[in-house]
Structures are given as structure tokens and as C-alpha cells.
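Checklist before submission:
- one chain only
- standard amino acids only
- sequence pasted in full

Submission:
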Amino acid sequence: MPNITLEQAEAVLAGAKAAALELGKPFSFSVVDARGDLITMCKMDGSAWRTPYVSRGKARASACFGEPSGDLTERSTTPIMRAVMEVERGEFVPGQGALPIYMNGELIGAVGGSGGTAQEDEDCSRSGIGRVAGASASR
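Returned file contents:
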């Protein structure tokens, strides 16, 4: 399974932070590999204490299913999704704000944001993906 490199993850993080600065809001962002393991994370000055955990949980959910985390929200009450959330002990958040990262049609990771509205979290995440040549949020 191919994975995002640290260099690529740092570029995603830089792009997401730049988008957050344009909004004038403090966020936290997490970039995980295709398995959902953390590669890099940042908590911007002034962001709420909970935002790193939420950003990581959203990113993990997105990587686990290879879908935007917001697409998982409707399924969050199904037995399978509840079981996954239980097994992941709160480190799996099926709420809008994270996007999978694909390269050449293969999942390499995901980025999640927390600190703005759900749409702002997702928009900043998308801006981060745009910083990596050849990467996209869909296959």
C-alpha cells in the first residue's frame, strides 16, 4: 500500500494552514497515512484544545474508508460504524472536515481539519491537498 511521505504531508499541512490564515481562524490539522496513522499535525495558536483530536479523528475516518469524512456522517449510527468508533476509542470521527488523498488513483492518506465550520474544515483540507502535485481528494 503506498503512503504519503513526510514531505508531502508537510506540504498538505502548509496549504491547509495558509487557507486557515486567509479565513482568520485558528484551526488544527492532521495528516495521516493510508492506514490512518498520524504523519504530522499542527495546532494553530488560539485554537481550541479539542481541535487536534477532532482533526485527527476525521482524518482517520476518511483514510479508513477512502471517502470524505462528511460522507460517513449518515452511517455513523449503523452497527458497523458504531463498532469501528468503539474499537478506535474516540479516534474515529465521521463528521465533515477531512478528505482522502489519492495519488495516481491510489489512497495514500487523508487530511482533516477542525476549528471552523464543518465546510471550512473541509475547504482548508482541500486547499492542503492542492499543494501536492498529482494529489487529489478523489480517485
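Reviewer check: The chain has a mean pLDDT of 92.
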